[in-house]
UniProtKB/TrEMBL annotation, chains A, B, C, D:
Species classification: Bacteria, Pseudomonadati, Pseudomonadota, Betaproteobacteria, Burkholderiales
Protein known as: Heme-binding protein
Pfam families: HbpS-like
Length: 148, 148, 148, 148
């Protein structure tokens, strides 16, 4: 199950509305569960490298199946190993704010990445967009083996 | 001068309308004159690698400053040299249908790339979108030295 | 809007004049707003790798849209993430002295990079050249959303 | 012995004068005997990727110590092997028109690369510039072991 283009665009609209409130032009990227881009929008005035940065955040959150900031502990405790892992995907695996897994009713749908503000601002924009559209905000560090 | 996000989204809407007419889900990418992504949309059902393919087409058309299909003669007459040139940019330089330079009143604004149909279909979708919005459709093989 | 070759050469001349004053052979690179080289000059006696270094500084300042030294805070606060971002462009994104965004009347025109002295000397040469030709010297950490 | 910046700029001026005669904006690159850039100039209207292409031509002609077009026989007779060799340098080794070794009185001084016209035009511009400034135009396919 992957996020639809319509739902991706709704997330982008909500993120842009949050960016307008802090008066910073941002780039928002939505990827599917495999980390492939569904939609990207770079606001006027937003810097050229933002799509690459936001894609890395969205990709990380989709394929690592938890928000990119949740990787910070790993990146700090095993910097050498994490540096190697960070190049093992199709895009960089980044341990930073501004990337969120998109999930509803326990179902993974993709990843959301925001670039254009401070790390905290990028994160707040992600959170605001996901909250506005009713996606989940809590993620576990580890998956479990499903039994039923 | 670079294309605005609003104008990029209008081009994407027009391209999607053309894709609906041939009943094929596509991905459309718009880049600025430096080849940096402004907007990407992958329609539901469109395959995962389309954004990469469409980005290469849009990038090529922006930085080579002419439609990507106009490079086919070069690619055919000097295949070895063209293969080397094709890796000199930030994205692959591709000699194929489905990439158009975005230009109005002689002013370069960016590049448009479409992936999802045959080469001819991708090209027709580009042409339809640019035509619908009044962009230029004729490009010279060579730039000239401006005098005034 | 990109810097013209004539204006790029005037900047190079001004930078070389500043280099003569400190008696160090330098390399100066000017790129356009997309980060593509407009002009490079390596003075006699200047070392072979300087063009690559100066290109990275100029590229960074053009596509990050602020002087390369303004990235030092980011590079220091998030070294792992910044290392990843530093490879996302067509040339390395460097957080160091000696790279300046070229801007006049609020209009981005390109990037200037100098290599050949200490970081401070390279920066002073950039500043002297930009000042001599009336370009802007103040840059904001963040862009804002333009309204009108 | 390497070409001086002043002599490199004189070659660039001569090449640009030849480009004006055919009304095509070009990029000219001069490298030293080690293949490191001495000077690059991209004329207004010249396309963004020309500096990369012209650098490859100049680099090839400097480090292969013969005009880049003289490699065409090799590239054609051993395409697989040549493709491998072509990536063994610091820049692509290209077998095409528009790159010339810079040599005077039997002394290698560097390489000249031109991009912006057809292969033949790029070559004619190189030839015109080298001729105007009295550099050699004849090169042997093979070096010999100097005896004296």
């Amino acid at each position: 199950m992957n996020i639809s283009l319509q739902d991706a665009k709704a997330l982008i609209d909500a993120a842009q509305a949050a960016a307008v409130r802090i008066d910073k032009p941002i780039t928002v990227v939505v990827v599917d569960t495999g980390g492939f881009v569904v939609a990207t929008e770079r606001m006027d005035g937003a810097r050229p490298l933002q799509p690459s940065i936001a894609t890395a955040k969205a990709y990380t959150s989709a394929v690592m199946q938890r928000p990119s900031k949740m990787l910070k502990g790993w990146a700090e405790s095993q910097p050498g190993f994490f540096a190697q892992v960070s190049t093992m995907g199709h895009h960089p695996i980044v341990a930073t704010e501004g990337g969120m897994t998109i999930k509803r009713n326990g179902q993974l749908l993709g990843g959301l990445g925001v670039s254009g503000g401070t790390g905290d601002e990028d994160q707040e924009i992600c959170d605001a967009a996901l909250h506005a559209l009713g996606y989940e905000s809590a993620f576990a560090e580890w998956n479990t083996i499903k039994k039923d």
